[in-house]
Specification:
By secondary structure, this protein is of the alpha/beta class. The protein contains 9 helices and 14 strands. The structure holds flavin mononucleotide (FMN) and adenosine-5'-diphosphate. Adenosine-5'-diphosphate binds near residues 197, 198, 256 and 261. Keywords: ATP-binding, FAD, Flavoprotein, FMN, Kinase, Multifunctional enzyme, Nucleotide-binding, Nucleotidyltransferase, Transferase.
């Protein structure tokens, strides 16, 4: 998969492409269908497949209310998409100038610069200035530009709409199990283990710390998790937040890995979130914090014992 990060105006692709078009925040089961359709059609017509998305979420730039949370950063997006058999991944530069391009011009650039022969998008996809471009416009321009258009219908999961907005709501509630259902995989983060205060080891719960983005949607608190070190999965418990008892200056994800003893500093680890256990609390003493973590650990052990998830 070739990753191209550039302004759409600067790109010129000679190979014919079947493109999946969207913001794809979360790469949930609806997004999956769109991307798979684009890849299948690429195979069928013996052309190359591509995901066309932006270097930042359009709402990060355009939304008037407070910053929206981003479910999947670009690094993780690329990691997930590696498994889809895509030839190209485009992170098009999304600027205010780009957002003001008329939809017809955007479409022209997709055809002319990306050599798009097949376009696949979701039923409610909108694009171009003020989001005026939509599937009707894509349909009308098919005749002029001779591309094939695939519109993927709304996907439902247990009578619920699957959308990034709905998934963000579940994150706020801390319902990570519902998030995972709608995503179609266990939500995960990847990061490099950093040095912390060096205190946790002293009270029997060493924690591998990674910095977590302020706009990450996970609710602060304690989770049952699965942590992957060198692709091997370990049961674990993770805390996200500002550790009010011992005060951290930045938002941090701390993971205590069961049945593991080793040095993780500087290593990349992957943490999957399985169940929200409790909110993060300020304890009067380290002893009380330690007791709370003991309870978290027994809850997690109980969960893993009874879970089909291994
Ligand atoms: C499962 C778990 C639950 C935690 N819960 C809390 C909490 O409720 N409140 C809190 O202040 N810190 C909590 N922590 C964070 C500890 O305070 C943290 O491990 C400690 O700040 C040591 O940090 P260090 O790794 O930088 O030495 C929790 C950590 C773990 C692993
Ligand atoms: N079971 C474990 N879970 C998490 N980290 C562990 C474990 N065993 C050893 N470690 C190591 O210990 C470090 C955490 O110890 P800790 O006292 O919390 O230090 P720090 O404050 O620097 O994170 C981890 O970064 C990792 O290198």
């Amino acid at each position: 998969m070739k990753i191209i990060r550039d302004d759409l105006h600067n790109i010129k692709i000679s190979e014919k492409l079947s493109i999946a078009l969207g913001t794809f925040d979360g790469i949930h089961i609806g997004h999956k269908k769109i991307i798979e359709t684009a890849v299948e059609d690429a195979k069928k017509f013996r052309i190359k497949s591509a995901v066309v998305t932006f270097d930042k979420h359009p709402l990060e730039l355009l939304s008037s209310n407070k910053q929206i949370s981003i479910i999947t950063n670009n690094k993780i997006k690329a990691k997930i998409l590696e498994n889809y058999g895509i030839d190209y991944l485009f992170f098009l530069t999304f600027s205010r100038e780009f957002a003001s391009i008329e939809p017809e011009k955007f479409l022209y650039l997709l055809i002319n610069n990306l050599n798009s022969n097949i376009i696949t998008c979701g039923y409610n996809y909108s694009f171009g200035k003020n989001g005026r471009g939509n599937v009707e416009l894509l349909d009308i321009f098919q005749k002029e530009y001779h591309y094939k258009l695939n519109i993927v219908d709304k996907i439902m999961c247990f009578e619920k709409d699957v959308s990034s907005t709905e998934i963000r709501k579940e994150f706020i509630k801390g319902d990570i199990e519902e998030v995972n259902k709608l995503l179609g995989y266990n939500y995960f983060l990847i990061g490099t283990v950093e040095y912390g205060k060096g205190l946790a080891k002293q009270f029997g719960f060493p924690t591998a710390n990674i910095i977590i983005e302020e706009n990450n949607p996970l609710k602060n608190g304690v989770y049952i998790s699965k942590t992957y070190v060198n692709n091997k999965g370990y049961d674990s418990i993770s805390n996200i937040g500002y550790t009010p008892t011992l005060r951290s200056t930045s938002r941090v994800l701390e993971t205590h890995i069961f049945n593991f003893d080793g040095n993780l500093y500087g290593k990349e680890i992957k943490i999957e979130f399985l169940k929200f256990l409790r909110e993060e609390k300020k304890f009067d003493s380290v002893e009380n914090l330690k007791q709370a973590i003991e309870i978290d650990r027994s809850n997690a052990i109980h969960y893993f014992k009874n879970s089909i998830y291994k």
